[in-house]
Amino acid sequence: MPSERVIRFTHTFLFTLVLLSSIVALGISASLVGHYNNHGYPPVHTDAYRDRIRILLVASVWTTAWGLILTFGFQFFGQSNAFGLITHLVPMAIAFILFLIGVSSLTALTDKIDCGNVSQSFTRCSIVKGLVVISWIDTIFIIFALTFLTILCFMARKRYGAHRSTLYLD
Predict the structure, then answer these.
(1) HSE of 145 in the Cβ direction (CA atoms, 13 Å)?
(2) pTM score > 0.85 for this model?
(3) Helix pair angle (46-77, 125-156), 10° resolution
(4) pLDDT of 97-139, one tens digit each?
(5) Residue ranges of domains in the chain
(6) Engineered SS bond to 60: which of 1, 25, 71, 164, CB 3.0-4.6 Å?
(7) Which positions ≥6 away from 12 have C-beta within 8 Å?
């Protein structure tokens, strides 16, 4: 069984990465939504850009909020069932779904666009492409966190079951 120290270090490392990348995605998507609401969305696929960037804004707000709650809650109340396995799995699974929907659809929309080509470009084109990159990075970090939590769930099912176990598996 993994020790409490290993679990605490791995949790802190993974959820700090998730939190930092979510904060960056939150900043970029919020600035894009603010800019496009004031100056108008790109002339082609206006509703598509609006919807996809807003999905990523919701995903990054969700992940940032839960990342803060789970990171600091686990550090201070890690032995409590309130910060157990299911409490970690459900919000991270929702974050994964939100990010995957938003980033895959925005990637499909911007895949053929070259920001250097004046005829294809639009205002803040490179920032939209940057949002795609940081959102994929955040999605990968969330996959790593979900893998870590799933492994702990399989270890916990032998004892009390995943719904009543803390992350420490003692």
Answers:
(1) 31
(2) yes
(3) 40
(4) 999 999 999 999 988 888 888 877 788 889 999 999 999 999 9
(5) 4-164
(6) 25
(7) 71, 74, 75
